[in-house]
Amino acid sequence: MNNVINEVTEILSLLYKHNWDERNGGNLSYILSEEEVKTVCDPTRVLRSFEFDFDMSPLIGTYFIVTGTGKYFKNCLKDPENNLGILKVVSKSKVDLLWGYTDGGKMTSEFPTHLMCHIERLKQDPQHRLVIHCHPTNLIAMTHICPLDSRFFTEKLWKMQTESIVVFPEGVAVLPWMVCGGNEIGVATAEKMAEGYRSVIWAHHGLSCTGRTLDEVYGLIETIEKAAEIYLKVFGKEIIQSITDRQLRELAKAFNIEYRKGIID
């Protein structure tokens, strides 16, 4: 199997096995180089086109591999060409399908949200390539019992384990419950990305994480979800000791990282 297809489907399988993408839950969009596209298909051969009602101008000429709407992550490894598609943004409102969705399907309904996030993250990091949306169980549970506040979630998740502030020093953003699949939630998520967050929690729904590589983003999801699991295990119990603000600042100094100010200062 082609390398890039193999790498993507392997990550999708891991997300499914962790129960973070049940049924057809979750989606992925990954920026590809033209060289990577050529190892899969002919980038000049257009199969179909799709129109969107927002300005994609900053992404014109960009290739993506994207999970399909209604598709199950568990099926991507055995049948990638049906469950995934390779797309190219060709104008401010149109994308071309170059490969995939062989049953006549199309990209995830949350593709506009992904594109809005790509636009914002590329402004801050030209090496950005990836958006993954998933449904981590413990993190979703936290949104039922915790204030839907970015500062609150960031502080709690940082203090659950030593790795947290090292892996996501910018913290996590939190949005209230919103209807998914439309432009409204995409705009709100992209606004949080514009504030420097790589990870945005959707209350009672899931998590969207961004980064440069599949390993980086998968590891970010793992770390956030493990911190949430620890939080739920200790929630309601007497805490005898925990990581302090001072210790978090010491960690940041030791690892030479810039953390989000206003949380532990």
How is this structure best described in words?
By secondary structure, this protein is an alpha+beta fold. It folds into 2 domains: 15-108, L-fuculose-1-phosphate Aldolase; 109-265, L-fuculose-1-phosphate Aldolase. It contains 10 helices and 9 strands. The chain has helices at 3-17, 34-38, 80-83, 111-124, 137-145, 150-160, 163-167, 183-194, 214-234, 245-254; strands spanning 27-32, 48-51, 63-67, 84-89, 94-100, 130-134, 173-175, 199-202, 206-211. Strands 2-5-4-3-1-6-9-8-7 form a 9-stranded mixed β-sheet, with helices on both faces. Helix 4 (111-124) packs parallel to helix 8, helix 5 (137-145) packs across helix 9 and helix 6 packs across helix 9 (214-234). The longest helix has 21 residues, at 214-234. The protein is elongated, with a radius of gyration of 19 Å. The model has no long low-confidence stretch (mean pLDDT 95).
**How many distinct helices?**
10
**Structure classification:** alpha+beta
CATH class of the largest domain: Alpha Beta
Largest sheet: 9 strands, mixed
CATH architecture of the largest domain: 3-Layer(aba) Sandwich
CATH topology of the largest domain: L-fuculose-1-phosphate Aldolase
Quote the average pLDDT.
Answer: 95
User: What is the H/E string?
Assistant: HEHEEHEEHEHHHEHEEHH
Strand content: 15-25%
Low-confidence spans: none
Fraction of residues in helices? 40-55%
Number of strands: 9
Terminal Cα span: 50 Å
